[in-house]
Amino acid sequence: MKTINGKIYIFSAGGCGTRIFYDWVKKYYNRINNQSRVHHDIPPKKLGVNDRVIYLFGTPEDSILSFYKKDADAGKFIKEHCQNLKIPFVNLNIDDYIEKGDDLFGLRFHFNKYNSLNNIMLVNYNYLWENLDVICDYLNLSEVKSTFPTKKERRDIKIQHDKKGLSAIYVDFNKIIDKIKIIKK
Asked: What confidence tens digit (pLDDT) does each residue in 21-31 have?
Protein backbone atom coordinates (compact mmCIF):
# COMPACT_ATOMS: atom_id res chain seq x y z
CA MET A 1 0.00 0.00 0.00
CA LYS A 2 1.39 3.40 -1.02
CA THR A 3 1.34 6.42 1.23
CA ILE A 4 1.39 10.16 0.87
CA ASN A 5 1.11 12.68 3.66
CA GLY A 6 -2.41 13.63 2.66
CA LYS A 7 -5.58 12.24 1.15
CA ILE A 8 -6.42 11.56 -2.46
CA TYR A 9 -9.68 12.89 -3.86
CA ILE A 10 -11.06 11.89 -7.24
CA PHE A 11 -14.02 13.88 -8.51
CA SER A 12 -16.08 14.21 -11.66
CA ALA A 13 -19.60 14.97 -12.79
CA GLY A 14 -19.85 11.39 -14.04
CA GLY A 15 -19.65 9.52 -17.31
CA CYS A 16 -15.90 10.01 -17.80
CA GLY A 17 -14.03 7.03 -16.36
CA THR A 18 -14.19 7.91 -12.67
CA ARG A 19 -14.97 4.36 -11.57
CA ILE A 20 -12.07 2.87 -13.53
CA PHE A 21 -9.65 5.48 -12.22
CA TYR A 22 -10.89 5.33 -8.61
CA ASP A 23 -10.76 1.52 -8.49
CA TRP A 24 -7.19 1.54 -9.80
CA VAL A 25 -5.96 4.16 -7.30
CA LYS A 26 -7.79 2.40 -4.45
CA LYS A 27 -5.62 -0.71 -5.01
CA TYR A 28 -2.56 1.28 -3.96
CA TYR A 29 -3.79 3.78 -1.41
CA ASN A 30 -5.73 3.32 1.78
CA ARG A 31 -6.09 7.08 2.30
CA ILE A 32 -8.22 7.70 -0.76
CA ASN A 33 -11.31 9.62 0.24
CA ASN A 34 -14.17 7.11 0.14
CA GLN A 35 -16.67 9.81 -0.76
CA SER A 36 -14.69 11.03 -3.72
CA ARG A 37 -16.47 8.80 -6.22
CA VAL A 38 -19.73 10.47 -5.33
CA HIS A 39 -20.38 13.30 -7.75
CA HIS A 40 -20.35 16.16 -5.26
CA ASP A 41 -21.94 19.46 -6.09
CA ILE A 42 -19.10 21.41 -4.50
CA PRO A 43 -15.41 20.74 -3.92
CA PRO A 44 -14.18 20.10 -0.37
CA LYS A 45 -13.90 23.32 1.63
CA LYS A 46 -10.64 22.38 3.29
CA LEU A 47 -7.82 20.62 1.55
CA GLY A 48 -4.58 19.78 3.23
CA VAL A 49 -1.32 20.99 1.74
CA ASN A 50 -0.37 17.40 0.86
CA ASP A 51 -3.79 16.33 -0.44
CA ARG A 52 -4.02 15.32 -4.08
CA VAL A 53 -7.16 16.22 -6.00
CA ILE A 54 -7.95 14.88 -9.45
CA TYR A 55 -10.95 16.10 -11.40
CA LEU A 56 -11.84 13.90 -14.37
CA PHE A 57 -13.97 15.29 -17.15
CA GLY A 58 -14.82 14.43 -20.70
CA THR A 59 -16.90 15.82 -23.48
CA PRO A 60 -20.40 16.46 -22.16
CA GLU A 61 -21.88 14.49 -25.05
CA ASP A 62 -19.94 11.37 -24.10
CA SER A 63 -20.75 11.85 -20.41
CA ILE A 64 -24.47 12.16 -21.01
CA LEU A 65 -24.53 9.24 -23.42
CA SER A 66 -22.77 7.27 -20.70
CA PHE A 67 -25.53 8.25 -18.25
CA TYR A 68 -28.17 6.91 -20.61
CA LYS A 69 -26.35 3.76 -21.73
CA LYS A 70 -26.64 2.28 -18.27
CA ASP A 71 -29.85 0.62 -19.49
CA ALA A 72 -31.97 -0.51 -16.53
CA ASP A 73 -29.76 1.42 -14.10
CA ALA A 74 -29.91 4.68 -16.09
CA GLY A 75 -32.82 6.09 -14.10
CA LYS A 76 -31.16 5.21 -10.80
CA PHE A 77 -27.82 6.68 -11.90
CA ILE A 78 -29.43 9.89 -13.17
CA LYS A 79 -31.46 10.27 -9.98
CA GLU A 80 -28.33 9.86 -7.82
CA HIS A 81 -26.40 12.26 -10.07
CA CYS A 82 -29.09 14.92 -9.68
CA GLN A 83 -29.27 14.39 -5.91
CA ASN A 84 -25.50 14.60 -5.51
CA LEU A 85 -25.26 17.77 -7.60
CA LYS A 86 -28.35 19.19 -5.87
CA ILE A 87 -30.14 19.85 -9.16
CA PRO A 88 -33.72 18.98 -10.14
CA PHE A 89 -34.25 15.38 -11.23
CA VAL A 90 -33.90 15.05 -15.01
CA ASN A 91 -36.68 12.58 -15.79
CA LEU A 92 -36.28 12.65 -19.56
CA ASN A 93 -35.23 10.19 -22.20
CA ILE A 94 -32.29 11.19 -24.38
CA ASP A 95 -34.49 12.58 -27.18
CA ASP A 96 -36.43 14.80 -24.77
CA TYR A 97 -33.18 15.93 -23.15
CA ILE A 98 -31.84 17.01 -26.54
CA GLU A 99 -35.12 18.74 -27.37
CA LYS A 100 -34.89 20.82 -24.18
CA GLY A 101 -31.58 22.17 -25.50
CA ASP A 102 -30.06 23.02 -22.13
CA ASP A 103 -27.38 21.65 -19.77
CA LEU A 104 -29.91 20.12 -17.38
CA PHE A 105 -27.27 17.90 -15.77
CA GLY A 106 -25.17 20.91 -14.73
CA LEU A 107 -21.94 19.63 -16.27
CA ARG A 108 -20.55 23.05 -17.14
CA PHE A 109 -21.41 24.53 -13.75
CA HIS A 110 -19.82 21.53 -12.01
CA PHE A 111 -16.67 21.79 -14.12
CA ASN A 112 -16.36 25.52 -13.40
CA LYS A 113 -16.58 24.97 -9.63
CA TYR A 114 -13.71 22.49 -9.65
CA ASN A 115 -11.72 24.44 -12.25
CA SER A 116 -11.66 27.36 -9.81
CA LEU A 117 -9.69 25.36 -7.22
CA ASN A 118 -5.98 25.53 -6.60
CA ASN A 119 -3.99 22.37 -5.83
CA ILE A 120 -5.95 20.27 -8.32
CA MET A 121 -5.18 18.28 -11.43
CA LEU A 122 -7.78 18.50 -14.20
CA VAL A 123 -7.68 15.43 -16.45
CA ASN A 124 -9.56 15.14 -19.72
CA TYR A 125 -10.72 11.52 -20.12
CA ASN A 126 -9.85 11.62 -23.83
CA TYR A 127 -6.19 12.24 -22.93
CA LEU A 128 -5.98 10.19 -19.74
CA TRP A 129 -3.87 7.35 -21.14
CA GLU A 130 -1.39 9.58 -22.95
CA ASN A 131 -0.83 11.54 -19.73
CA LEU A 132 -0.40 8.62 -17.32
CA ASP A 133 3.23 9.58 -16.63
CA VAL A 134 2.22 13.00 -15.28
CA ILE A 135 -0.78 11.63 -13.39
CA CYS A 136 1.16 8.76 -11.83
CA ASP A 137 3.96 11.12 -10.81
CA TYR A 138 1.41 13.42 -9.13
CA LEU A 139 -0.02 10.44 -7.20
CA ASN A 140 3.36 8.82 -6.49
CA LEU A 141 2.29 5.77 -8.53
CA SER A 142 4.86 5.82 -11.32
CA GLU A 143 6.15 2.34 -10.55
CA VAL A 144 2.68 0.79 -10.99
CA LYS A 145 1.65 2.73 -14.11
CA SER A 146 1.74 -0.49 -16.14
CA THR A 147 -1.16 -1.86 -14.08
CA PHE A 148 -3.52 0.88 -15.23
CA PRO A 149 -6.38 -0.61 -17.29
CA THR A 150 -5.97 -0.43 -21.04
CA LYS A 151 -8.13 2.01 -22.92
CA LYS A 152 -11.33 0.64 -24.38
CA GLU A 153 -13.30 2.48 -26.99
CA ARG A 154 -16.46 3.97 -25.57
CA ARG A 155 -19.48 2.07 -26.79
CA ASP A 156 -21.79 5.06 -26.51
CA ILE A 157 -19.81 6.95 -29.16
CA LYS A 158 -21.64 4.94 -31.84
CA ILE A 159 -24.88 6.82 -31.17
CA GLN A 160 -24.11 9.59 -33.66
CA HIS A 161 -27.65 11.00 -33.86
CA ASP A 162 -27.80 11.62 -30.12
CA LYS A 163 -24.23 12.89 -30.02
CA LYS A 164 -24.93 15.45 -32.73
CA GLY A 165 -28.00 16.71 -30.87
CA LEU A 166 -26.04 16.97 -27.62
CA SER A 167 -23.16 18.77 -29.37
CA ALA A 168 -25.51 21.62 -30.25
CA ILE A 169 -26.26 22.09 -26.52
CA TYR A 170 -22.62 22.08 -25.45
CA VAL A 171 -20.86 23.92 -28.27
CA ASP A 172 -19.55 26.74 -26.02
CA PHE A 173 -18.52 24.40 -23.22
CA ASN A 174 -16.67 22.17 -25.68
CA LYS A 175 -14.63 25.15 -26.86
CA ILE A 176 -13.29 25.43 -23.31
CA ILE A 177 -12.63 21.79 -22.53
CA ASP A 178 -11.24 20.91 -25.96
CA LYS A 179 -8.20 23.03 -25.07
CA ILE A 180 -7.50 21.06 -21.88
CA LYS A 181 -5.66 17.75 -21.88
CA ILE A 182 -4.28 17.94 -18.38
CA ILE A 183 -3.64 20.86 -16.06
CA LYS A 184 -2.04 20.87 -12.65
CA LYS A 185 -2.79 23.98 -10.66
From this structure: 988 998 888 66
Least confident of 86-100, 126-140, 147-161: 147-161
Please give the pLDDT value at position 65: 86
Q: Name residue 162's amino acid.
A: D
Q: Are 104 and 90 in contact (CB under 8 A)?
A: yes
User: What is the largest distance, in Å, between two alpha-carbon atoms of the chain?
Assistant: 48
Q: Is beta strand 121-124 parallel, antiparallel or unpaired with respect to 182-184?
A: antiparallel
Q: Are 48 and 7 in contact (CB under 8 A)?
A: yes
Q: How far apart are CA 163 and CA 156, in angstroms?
A: 9
Neighbours of 168 (CB within 10 A): 10
Q: Are 123 and 17 in contact (CB under 8 A)?
A: no
Buried b (16+ CB within 10 A) or exposed e, 8-42: bbbbbbbbbbbebbbebbeebbeebbeebbebbee
Which DSSP state fits 123? E
Rounded to whole angstroms, the Cα distance separating 92 from 77 reads: 13
- What does the domain layout of the chain look like in residue ranges? 8-184
pLDDT digits (tens, 9 = 90+) for 83-132: 888 888 888 888 899 999 999 999 999 999 888 887 889 999 999 999 99
- pTM here is 0.87
